[in-house]
Specification:
By secondary structure, this protein is an alpha/beta fold. The protein is built from 13 helices and eleven strands. The protein has helices spanning about 10-20, 70-90, 115-140, 150-160, 165-180, 185-200, 225-240, 255-270, 280-290, 305-315, 335-345, 365-375, 395-405; strands at about 1-10, 25-35, 45-55, 215-220, 245-250, 275, 295-300, 325-330, 350-355, 375-380, 390-395. Helix 6 (about 185-200) packs antiparallel against helix 13 (about 395-405) and helix 11 runs parallel beside helix 12. Guanosine-5'-diphosphate binds near residues 226 and 301.
Length: about 400
């Protein structure tokens, strides 16, 4: 058996070295973090030590690898993983009984210094590591055989946190369009094809606003996303610009400050405000505000990834009149969390979403993800703390431009 030690910054770096020096059947026996260099024990660099081995007599490594062989690399490592997995299973005889008794040349015999179980544990741990690295590798280099402009588009969308399935769908659609026009391979053309497709896909969810016929509009969403501030912005806009008779209700009685916050805006705007502590208080509040044309209702932010909280807030949203519920989400939130919250509210028939804090991020994928995957219609985008100015209706074309950014340099 040939054993070699590699010291690298991260495991994926070692894979091509191992492959080219020990061949495709090499296996990783161990990895550990080491610190090297430095001065008097300071400034030492964190590195990873990788021990790889190949059984003597295994096929020699292939000739020097081509520069653009990431896909082939991936294939080989997957093969190595499968072999290692099979070995681990066969050696422990726990996962499945050995079927083939003849030893495969790719699998190293256990070094005498380590007990077999420990090696198997290490191997399994390693496999987990490699799988993760491969996933990351394939996330970032998925289109190795594709033109650079397509790769750049892919990277842009990954960086914008567009969901993987939507990226794949878009890249396929762009490629389909290109099949008839292979000369359109420069970034400008690719970007404009992508822009066209994204606009087309977003169109059913674009150009919507809060229902004009809704007299009561509820705002729901996680804590701190900007519900109260948004209500103040919209109420100010409606009453100052359009002279509409607005009324406010808050059910956010978890925090005294939350009631005071909305009351401050109500006082500034000179509009009446009612506080409700439970669904039973609602009829009285509506009665008090019966002369109002439009009522905005603020609610308490909760952990709405928990469906129980969603059903709880939903019980507050009942009314006999035309009403609508707007889910408020902050663009600074994590896409996965937003999707979990959206999923819960969509079940209760919510179809409008309002995004806040555009000014605090340069990652916009969440809007597209929620529109395409949950059919949520973005109605407004808030982009700052100033009441009433920092809010505007959602503009799909501007949004897609921001999402795609400028075409990559050629
Ligand atoms: N940067 C930025 N901050 C915002 C925006 N909307 C609200 N905020 C701020 O976010 C914080 C929480 O807002 P608030 O309305 O109390 O959130 P709520 O808990 O959902 O009612 C406050 O400091 C707001 O000023 C926005 O669009 N951009
Ligand atoms: Mg609030």
């Amino acid at each position: 058996m040939r054993v070699k030690r590699y010291v690298v910054n991260a495991l994926p770096e070692a894979l091509p070295m191992i492959r080219s020096e020990l061949g495709k059947d090499a296996v990783i026996l161990n990895t550990k973090e080491v610190r090297i260099g430095g001065f008097m024990g300071m400034f030492r660099k964190k590195k990873m030590e990788v021990i790889a081995a190949i059984e003597s007599g295994a096929p020699a490594p292939a000739a020097a690898s081509q520069p653009r062989q990431a896909a082939a690399d991936v294939q080989r490592v997957v093969h190595a993983i499968q072999e290692s997995k099979r070995q681990a299973a066969t050696a422990t005889a726990v996962l499945e009984p050995p079927v083939v008794q003849t030893p495969t040349p790719s699998i190293p015999t256990a070094p005498v210094s380590q007990p077999l179980n420990r090696i198997n544990d290490d191997l399994l741990e390693e496999i987990r590591h490699i799988k993760l690295s491969l996933k990351q590798l394939s996330m970032h280099r998925p289109e190795v055989d594709k033109p650079l402009a397509i790769q750049a588009l892919y990277s842009r969308l990954v960086q914008q946190e567009v969901e993987a399935e939507l990226i794949d769908r878009l890249i396929d659609a762009v490629n389909e369009k290109l099949a008839g026009n292979p000369e359109l391979l420069n970034p400008q053309d690719i970007w404009s094809i992508a822009r066209g497709l994204l606009n087309e896909w977003l169109a059913p969810q674009a150009n919507h606003t809060i229902n004009h016929s809704a007299r009561i509009v509820h705002f729901v969403g996680p804590t701190g996303v900007g519900k109260t501030t948004t209500i103040a912005k919209l109420a100010a806009g409606q009453s100052i610009k359009f002279g509409r008779q607005i009324g406010l209700i808050t059910s956010d009685t978890y925090r005294i400050a939350a009631v005071d916050q909305l009351r401050t805006y109500a006082n500034i705007l000179n509009v009446p405000m009612e506080v409700v502590f439970s669904p039973m208080d609602l009829p009285k509040a509506y009665k008090q505000l019966e002369d109002r044309e439009l009522i905005y209702m603020d609610t308490a932010g909760r952990n709405f990834r928990n469906e129980l909280h969603v059903s709880e807030v939903n019980s507050l949203l009942q009314s006999n009149e035309q009403s609508e519920t707007v889910l408020v989400l902050s663009l600074t939130g994590k896409t996965k969390d937003m999707m979990a919250v959206a999923d819960n509210f969509v079940k209760y028939g919510v179809s409008k979403v309002l995004f806040t804090k555009l000014d605090e991020t340069s990652v916009y994928g969440a809007i597209f993800n929620l529109a395409l995957l949950y059919e949520l219609k973005p109605v407004f985008i808030a982009s700052g703390q100033t009441v009433p100015d920092d809010i505007s209706p959602f503009d799909a074309e501007r949004y897609i431009d921001a999402l795609l950014g400028a075409p990559a340099d050629e």
